[in-house]
Structures are given as structure tokens and as C-alpha cells.
UniProtKB/TrEMBL annotation:
<keyword id="KW-0804">Transcription</keyword>
<dbReference type="GO" id="GO:0006351">
    <property type="term" value="P:DNA-templated transcription"/>
</dbReference>
<keyword id="KW-0805">Transcription regulation</keyword>
<dbReference type="GO" id="GO:0043565">
    <property type="term" value="F:sequence-specific DNA binding"/>
</dbReference>
<dbReference type="InterPro" id="IPR000847">
    <property type="entry name" value="LysR_HTH_N"/>
</dbReference>
<comment type="similarity">
    <text>Belongs to the LysR transcriptional regulatory family.</text>
</comment>
<dbReference type="InterPro" id="IPR058163">
    <property type="entry name" value="LysR-type_TF_proteobact-type"/>
</dbReference>
<protein>
    <submittedName>
        <fullName>LysR family transcriptional regulator</fullName>
    </submittedName>
</protein>
<dbReference type="Pfam" id="PF00126">
    <property type="entry name" value="HTH_1"/>
</dbReference>
<dbReference type="GO" id="GO:0003700">
    <property type="term" value="F:DNA-binding transcription factor activity"/>
</dbReference>
<dbReference type="InterPro" id="IPR036390">
    <property type="entry name" value="WH_DNA-bd_sf"/>
</dbReference>
<dbReference type="InterPro" id="IPR005119">
    <property type="entry name" value="LysR_subst-bd"/>
</dbReference>
<dbReference type="InterPro" id="IPR036388">
    <property type="entry name" value="WH-like_DNA-bd_sf"/>
</dbReference>
<dbReference type="Pfam" id="PF03466">
    <property type="entry name" value="LysR_substrate"/>
</dbReference>
<feature type="domain" description="HTH lysR-type">
    <location>
        <begin position="1"/>
        <end position="59"/>
    </location>
</feature>
<keyword id="KW-0238">DNA-binding</keyword>
Length: 293
């Protein structure tokens, strides 16, 4: 296939379902979109879309083409990310990823980094998915757990994030504050929907808290934090996050087995670029300041 423009047009029509929507995204006239679709269908000898009053619905062939086009478009975007990260100036996009649990630390570090380097545009990506640095999906990753083993990545140890047990003041007012581990069995907890989660705090709870006392369960870390703040039960969060909220009470102080080792990960091709080096240095200094505060 020698005309990527036509394929990309078909992909956006399939994604958005209308000619006008695709035209707006692509910055072309709607007649151009129609012409691209008609030409592509004529070249392939198959209908890619069913036309109807509400818009365009991809046929089976159209769906197949759209999936391939999406993969190709994603790879182009990743290539752009890698190329942009190789510049000599501390400017342009900086793609950083971590679990959402570390967002308080990362947002503070990224904000102060932009104050020092105002020509940088931050893209902060969170989620449980492992972003692939070799495809340019991120320039710097903060990861927790066992040391990453990807052969083309540079891995540096980072501070452990202290984790403690917290409860909302509203929960303490209703249920009281336990004075030690022995009293936890009579209290409500917020935890993971997956009771076999490998998170260190979850493993600890399995040995110290009856399963039936984990009364609010969710798969989303952000929802866990919101539930703890709402008084649904006690739960674990970083000391940085918990101590900054005046409505939360630290029930038990941090323990080493509630946290995982943290790692800063960069791809070998980008590790020595000025932008990546500047951010790594800044993040380490920012984290040290937060620990000392």
C-alpha cells in the first residue's frame, strides 16, 4: 500500500464514526475524507464502511484495516517521542511514567523542574501498564518492586517511599483509633479488590487483618485513597500523601515491609541526553528535600 494518507483517513473514520469528525482531526475538508475512502475501497476492491444516516460503520475488512493502521500510527508517535528526546537542549516534551501512587512526588518534581526549564512540556503517564521505553513511550520511568531486567534499559536505585497506615478523622470519631496491631481485627479496612495482590501492604494485611474486615475493595489506587479519606476504613498510603492531608490520622507508623524498592529506569539511547540527565538529577534532589522536610 503506497498511500498512507488514505489509510490514516480510514482509521480516523473508523475511530470517530463520521466523515466530519475525521476531517476535523486531520485538518482537511470533508470531501477529501470521502475521496480517500472511495479511492482506498476501489484499490482494495472491497467495502470498508457501511454508510448510513448516523455516519460510517466499519465492515469486517474496515475493522481489520483500522487495527493495522492504529498500530502503525502508534509506532510513528513513539518514534517521534524517541527523536524528540534526543535533542541537546533541555526543551520539548519530557515523557515520564509511574504508578499513580507516586503522583504526589512526581507532580511536585515535574512542576519545579518546569520552573527551572520553562521550555519543557511535561507528559506524565500513570497506570499499571508497563510503558516500553525502547519504543519511546517514556523517557524516564519510576518503577516499584524487583529491579527491572530489560537489557537495553539503565536502572538506578531510588529511595523507598515510606508507607504508613492512615484513617480519616471521621472514621476515628466513629470507630476509635487502634492502639496496636492486636486491635486491628475489629476495624474496617480499604484494600485491593484482588486479595492476592503482590503489593507489600496487601501481603502484610493478609497475615494481620481478617479477610472479612477488608470491607471496601477496589482495583484502582486512586479510589482507595478517596475511600480512606471518606472514612470507609483504614488503609495504606505514602507518608508524603497522608501527612499532607489534615483530615487524616496516621494510625501506625511506616514499616519497611509495607513498601517496595523504587527504581529509576531510562533507555540506554536516551540516558545521556541533557534533558533526561537534568530531570534525573532534579528528581533525586527533590526527593531528598522531601525526605528531609
Amino acid at each position: 500500500m503506497d498511500n498512507w494518507d488514505e489509510i490514516r483517513t480510514a482509521y480516523h473514520v473508523a475511530r470517530l464514526g463520521t466523515v466530519s469528525g475525521a476531517a476535523e482531526v486531520l485538518g482537511v475538508h470533508h470531501a477529501t475524507v470521502i475521496r480517500h475512502i472511495d479511492a482506498l475501497e476501489a484499490r482494495l476492491g472491497v467495502k470498508l464502511f457501511q454508510r448510513h444516516a448516523r455516519g460510517y460503520t466499519p465492515t469486517e475488512a474496515g475493522s481489520d484495516l483500522s487495527r493495522v493502521a492504529q498500530c502503525t500510527d502508534d509506532q510513528f508517535q513513539q518514534l517521534v517521542g524517541r527523536i524528540k528526546g534526543r535533542g541537546e537542549a533541555v526543551s520539548g516534551e519530557l515523557l515520564v511514567t509511574s504508578l499513580v501512587n507516586f503522583s504526589t512526588l512526581m507532580i511536585g518534581a515535574l512542576t519545579s523542574f518546569r520552573e527551572a526549564y520553562p521550555d519543557v512540556t511535561v507528559r506524565y503517564l500513570t497506570g499499571s501498564r508497563l510503558f516500553r521505553l525502547e519504543y519511546g513511550e517514556a523517557h524516564v520511568a519510576l518503577r516499584a518492586g524487583a529491579a527491572p531486567q530489560e537489557p537495553d534499559n539503565v536502572v538506578q536505585p531510588f529511595d523507598r517511599q515510606l508507607v504508613a497506615l492512615y484513617a480519616a478523622k471521621s472514621y476515628i470519631a466513629r470507630k476509635g483509633k487502634p492502639e496496636g496491631v492486636a486491635e486491628l481485627a475489629s476495624h474496617d479496612f480499604v484494600g485491593f479488590d484482588d486479595l492476592d495482590s503482590r503489593a507489600p501492604s496487601n501481603r502484610w494485611m493478609k497475615g494481620h487483618v481478617p479477610q472479612e474486615r477488608i470491607v471496601f475493595r477496589t482495583s484502582d489506587d486512586r479510589v482507595q485513597l478517596q475511600a480512606i479519606r471518606a472514612g470507609a476504613g483504614m488503609g495504606f498510603m505514602s507518608v508524603t500523601e497522608g501527612d499532607s492531608d489534615p483530615e487524616l490520622v496516621q494510625v501506625l507508623p511506616p514499616q519497611e515491609d509495607w513498601s517496595s524498592p523504587l527504581w529509576l529506569v531510562t533507555h540506554v539511547d536516551l540516558h545521556r541526553t541533557p534533558k533526561v540527565q537534568a530531570f534525573l538529577k532534579h528528581l533525586k534532589a527533590y526527593a531528598a528535600e522531601q525526605d528531609a522536610a
